[in-house]
Specification:
The protein has 196 residues and is mainly alpha-helical. The chain is built from 9 helices and 5 strands; from the N terminus they run H-H-E-E-E-H-E-E-H-H-H-H-H-H.
């Protein structure tokens, strides 16, 4: 669930940590209410579900239910918090803290054979969106950025992105018809230009 929230939904670790079960609204449209970072307690936003969110959420809610049952076996009157990320310890239900989230990602990193962080997952989400053709304004809104400049710095363009942009420009230019007139050809020859 943590990886899905960061890699597929673009959430920050603190946003994942703050999630409540009630933040996942399954009506139409399906949306997730996110308590983001920021001054005076943080900003709020909502985003749409990823196509895999329902499946992953249901699997995680089954795990969460088992944790609740373990706690009830030890204390039938256990208080069940609304936090999405819960675990049972000593008959009590605890919400995940940042250390627990970091430890889970470290375990996953060790299993897959390369190290990554919460921030790496979120940034990868943004770069996949960008490379998939999602408009930068939409990425900024999903990420909770107040302007696109922050999003552009966050994503960071590399040579592969710039090569791809130049390839798209060349494809557009090749598909666009510019009629050659005698005047255009003569003026280009005199000026030594080969383009428009």
């Amino acid at each position: 669930m943590i990886v899905h929230c960061e890699l597929d939904l673009g959430m920050r670790r603190c946003e994942v940590e703050r999630l409540k079960v009630s933040d996942f609204q399954s009506g139409r449209p399906r949306q997730i209410f996110i308590h983001g970072k920021g001054r005076n307690g943080g900003k709020y936003r909502s985003i749409s579900w990823h196509p895999q969110t329902e499946h992953i959420l249901n699997e995680f809610l089954e795990f969460r239910g088992r944790e609740i049952e373990k706690a009830r076996e030890k204390d039938p009157m256990v208080k069940i918090p609304g936090d999405l990320l819960l675990y049972e310890r000593g008959g009590k239900l605890q919400a995940y803290k940042k250390t627990a989230i970091d430890n889970i990602l470290e375990d996953i990193s060790a299993r897959v054979g390369f190290k990554f962080s919460n921030h790496d997952l979120r940034r990868t989400c943004g770069r996949m969106m960008y490379r998939g053709g999602v408009k930068i304004e939409e990425i900024a809104r999903i990420f909770g950025h107040s302007d696109t400049r922050t999003t552009m710095r966050y994503l960071g363009l590399d040579m592969e992105d710039m090569s791809s942009a130049m390839g798209r420009l060349a494809a557009y230019q090749a598909s666009t018809y510019f009629p050659k007139t005698e005047t255009n050809i003569l003026s280009q020859e005199k000026s030594g230009q080969s383009g428009i």
